[in-house]
Amino acid sequence: MNNVGQPSKKPTLSEFQEIASKTGGTISAMASHFGVIRKTIYVWCKEDADFQAVIDDERGKILDECIYTSRVLSRGIPIKEKDENGKETSRIVGWIERPDSGMIKYLMSTLGRNEGFGESLDVKAEVTTKGSIDINSWLTMNNTKKAE
């Protein structure tokens, strides 16, 4: 259905791919382009695995861009010294954007989890049962007191 309640024509896969690419797979933008409501896009994807694959691929591209941006943020953007010929050397003399330690920590704790990076919490507790009471006995005692 389009915005005025009339049946809409499902696009070809190549048309769908083209618009998904132009909109970055944003469902609202795609629906607007095709003159349908968002739900229609979801129906097309449910009915046709190839349409869903197009959306998944576009979202994967966005994720790739986010990972790249995160990588840049974690590494920073250095200003490198130039030699007498104007060619950059490996010596860093300043920063356009300093490395983001929070982003480094985040990437290490998520992407590096399989390599042993990340946060862990070791809890050490000494528990004794001396003077303790079995939970069933405690419940029986408390229920008896309430009944009295």
Describe what you observe in this structure.
By secondary structure, the chain is mainly alpha-helical. Helix 1 packs across helix 2 and helix 2 crosses helix 3. The longest helix has 27 residues. A hairpin with a 5-residue loop joins strand 1 and strand 2. Strands 1-2 form a two-stranded antiparallel ribbon. Among the domains are: about 60 residues, no CATH class; about 40 residues, no CATH class. The chain is flat. The N terminus is likely disordered.
Write the layout of secondary structure elements.
Blueprint (H helix, E strand, L loop, with lengths): L12 H11 L3 H8 L3 H10 L1 H27 L1 E6 L5 E10 L3 H10 L24 H13 L1
Antiparallel strand pairs: 1-2
Helix pairs in contact: 1-2, 1-4, 2-3, 3-4, 4-5
Percent strand equals: 5-15%
User: Which strand order does the major sheet show?
Assistant: 1-2
Largest sheet, strands/sense/barrel: 2 strands, antiparallel
Q: How many H/I helical runs?
A: 6
Tell me the radius of gyration. Answer: 29 Å
Give the low-pLDDT segments. 1-7
Mean pLDDT: 85
Q: Name the overall outline.
A: flat
Total count of strands? 2
Into which percent range does the helicity of residues fall?
40-55%
* Gap from first CA to last CA: 68 Å
Question: Which structural category fits the helices and strands?
Answer: mainly alpha
Order of helices and strands: HHHHEEHH
Assembly type of the chains comes to single chain
Keywords for this entry:
single chain; mainly alpha; disordered N terminus
Structure summarized in a few sentences:
With 148 residues, the protein is mainly α.
